């Protein structure tokens, strides 16, 4: 609002200058340079006396120019100073507040790069209600994120101090979505050395980068071009299935979701078969698969016994999945898995 007022004020001030120049050229028969000079020194209240109005009309015009021009010049100058000071203070206090907020974070996710891939990642994390910090080297992008109250750090994610500023030692995961494979490998190596337990999801553009990222410590490697190609083909060959997946994963208006829920040791579900757990009847959710250690049980049998540490993959209503997750963890305070 203040900047809009400043633009209007500057426009009005320039209009007064133009009126002054035109008036002196017509009334006092001055050249453009002399008229401009006389207008500026009059509005600035300098008054050297080398040029003075010689006609009564010119003197009246000068009086009007002083009354309107001096006040407008002072008001414009004060608005400019105010805008500069306010902008600097806003940046300083905003940055300090954001730093305190990031310093208080634990078990969060760090997103490296807020380009096209990173921006979509951020949007999804926001939808999933995850705590996250974004790192980007573009100051404009960081400023835009901070305007949205999104925790952001300006800098190169390959630098140790930038990762530390984002809380890599306390983070549970890092998504490195930088555009260059070499940068993603370097971020992976650095993050793993600072936090050996951190989970790393890395973006890769070239197939040969996958092995390097694995050796560097990446848990999962994503090829955006490959995934995009698969989705294009699926949309053509299996449009209904593709629409279903798109709606389940990305349509916020539809309350159906797919979730992974870890069964904790104290959960009442432990030791029960899928039939006995009544997950389908009570929570209106379908168990698609169970991950037990390194084994993935697809479409598990009704008599499959739920064990501690099982990771259940379910499809159901979002609210029901939240409630089921509470039962599986047995504690309200435990973090959700989906």
TrEMBL record:
Record field: transmembrane: 7-27, 33-51, 63-85
Membrane topology: Multi-pass membrane protein
Keyword Metal-binding appears in the UniProt entry: no
Annotated GO biological process: potassium ion transport
Keywords in alphabetical order: Ion channel, Ion transport, Membrane, Transmembrane, Transmembrane helix, Transport
Origin superkingdom: Bacteria
Gene Ontology cellular component terms for the protein in this record: plasma membrane
Domain RCK N-terminal: 106-223
GO molecular function, one term: monoatomic cation transmembrane transporter activity
Compartment(s): Cell membrane
Residues annotated as domain RCK C-terminal: 246-330
Family matches, as InterPro entries: K_chnl_dom (IPR013099), NAD(P)-bd_dom_sf (IPR036291), RCK_C (IPR006037), RCK_C_sf (IPR036721), RCK_N (IPR003148), Trk_Ktr_HKT_K-transport (IPR050721)
Protein known as: Voltage-gated potassium channel
Organism: Sporomusa malonica
């Amino acid at each position: 609002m203040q900047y809009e007022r400043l633009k209007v004020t500057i426009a009005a001030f320039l209009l007064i200058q133009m009126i002054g120049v035109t008036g002196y050229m017509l009334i006092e028969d001055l050249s453009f340079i002399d008229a401009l000079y006389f207008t500026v020194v009059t509005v600035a209240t300098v008054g050297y006396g080398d040029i003075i109005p010689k006609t009564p009309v010119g003197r009246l015009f000068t009086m009007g120019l002083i009354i309107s021009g001096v006040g407008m010049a002072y008001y414009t100058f004060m608005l400019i100073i105010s805008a500069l000071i306010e902008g600097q203070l806003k940046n300083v206090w905003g940055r300090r507040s954001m730093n305190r907020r990031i310093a208080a974070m634990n078990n969060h996710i760090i997103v490296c790069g807020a380009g096209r891939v990173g921006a979509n990642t951020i949007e999804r994390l926001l939808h999933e209600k995850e705590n996250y910090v974004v790192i980007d080297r573009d100051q404009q992008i960081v400023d835009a994120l901070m305007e949205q109250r999104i925790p952001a750090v300006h800098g190169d994610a390959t630098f140790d101090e930038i990762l530390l500023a984002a809380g890599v030692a306390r983070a549970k995961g890092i998504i490195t979505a930088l555009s260059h494979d070499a940068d993603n490998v370097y971020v992976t190596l650095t993050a793993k050395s600072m936090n050996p337990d951190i989970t790393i999801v890395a973006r890769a553009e070239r197939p040969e980068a996958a092995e390097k990222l694995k050796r560097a410590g990446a848990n999962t490697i994503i090829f955006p071009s490959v995934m995009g190609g698969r989705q294009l083909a699926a949309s053509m060959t299996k449009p209904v299935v593709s629409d279903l997946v798109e709606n389940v994963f990305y349509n916020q208006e539809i309350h159906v979701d797919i979730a992974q829920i870890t069964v904790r040791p104290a959960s009442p579900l432990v030791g029960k078969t899928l039939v006995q757990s009544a997950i389908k009847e009570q929570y209106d959710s379908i168990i698609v698969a169970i991950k037990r250690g390194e084994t993935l049980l697809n479409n598990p049998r009704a008599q499959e016994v739920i064990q501690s540490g099982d990771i259940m993959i379910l499809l159901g209503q979002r609210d029901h999945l939240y409630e089921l997750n509470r039962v599986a963890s047995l504690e309200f305070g435990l973090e959700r898995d989906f």
